[in-house]
Amino acid sequence: MPSTLAVGQAYLAQIETQLADLVSRGRHGDAEALVRVLATLRPSVHTLPPELLSQIFLLASNPRTADLSWLNLKKKSSLEEEFREGSKSLRTALRLSHVCAAWRKVALQTSRMWTTVLPLQGQKIANEAALLSLVKELLARSRPISFPLSYGPTLPHSIRKHLVANISRVDALRILNSELLGAMTGTKCPYLENLEYLHIDLNMRATNPVEPYKPVPQTAAFLTARKLHSVKIEDAPLTSLFLPWAQLTNVVLSPASTSAAECSDALRQCTTATTASLVTPCWDTNAAPISPLHSLPCLEYFELLFENQVGRPEDARRENMTPTFQSLALPSLKRFEIDTMGYGWPAETHSEFLDFIRRAPHVEELVFRSELDAQAVCEIIDLTPSLLKLRFVDCPNAVADPLFEYLTHRTGTQAPVAPRLTTFLVEYSTDLSIDQTKLLAMVESRWSGTLGEEEQARLSSWKKIIFRSGERSADAPANDPWTMPFRARVTELKHLGLSIGIS
């Protein structure tokens, strides 16, 4: 297929031949007329109205992508990698504005095109005056539209001062350096009227357990952010941050040098939150029960991880989790993920957890990474009649025969166990000690191919069953842990339409 360039060259040659033919035959008037027609022709891209061209520029540069991912960032990439990824929009905007005078005029009139993450990291600052001039120019081009700000490496005072002077326009703020907080204290406190997203990651978890933490400057600025609804705090002490907890709808807390009581106090104030993720240390064995109960009436998704590393040195050996469960009532909870790996699952914890689940009657999905056993899971399932999805991550004690026997449906029973359960997921890194015959009995008893019409009216059939093996240790047996008859039957069920997989 001929290239676009070849087609263009052939078309140009055809026009030149036509002009030469007209001239050779003395038809100068026709030749001049053809030249005048050709002079009026313009590429279609140059005939687009400015409004449409502006929209095309926005689609091409996509200025608000990097900042909206801050709340979902994982600690895998370096600041330099994030800078390269986040500056794509700015590089595209600059290229578009340098094509021609007409495009530059449209680009400079499209304020939203310049609301990108400012180029404040990724390389050492060689010329402070040049960077300050660039920041001023970009902020002027984006005015009056709000913009995102990622504050990472230490910046010269002149640039920091200019950023704080314009910070009321920021709607998504990422702070990786406490010096910006220091520039917002006392009488320098700004009014954050547009702030909606806040991500603070000060990387303050000490590698040495006895290493003291540096104090974090305290500012009242975030209390002025009436539009703030999503907050992610990592590696920073919660007691140093003054936030409008009651108005937040999306909260992710993975602090540093913060006690279990302080974590719990912050969470309990999030009365309008719909999603929350909390990493908290355990409590002292003699911690007094928290009363009265604190209800979070809007919370639908809750992820809870116990990790003493986020606490203080005295939290290192604590294993008491019960006050966290005692303190909360989550009447709207639908999805709950809990990770207690390394801290056991004693009877007292289980008892308080059951009471906690009783106060969350609408749970549809449970995810466990814990040392609880199969009997404990059965008792939890008994309190979650709306359960749709059950997932286990490295829970060898829970994924066991008593659980399979409990979930095996027996035709004619008056009240089926977990009547809405349709998804069963297991991720394991060590061989499971299970009776595969009992597992298969559980699978087939709740499969649509086995259930009659009357039973299907009372019991939801399986939609997905997955057993996924992670990396095995070097000394683990290399042979397949699943028997050949079991694998054969799984293959048959998959062929008959059941979404089932084992590895």
From TrEMBL:
<protein>
    <recommendedName>
        <fullName>F-box domain-containing protein</fullName>
    </recommendedName>
</protein>
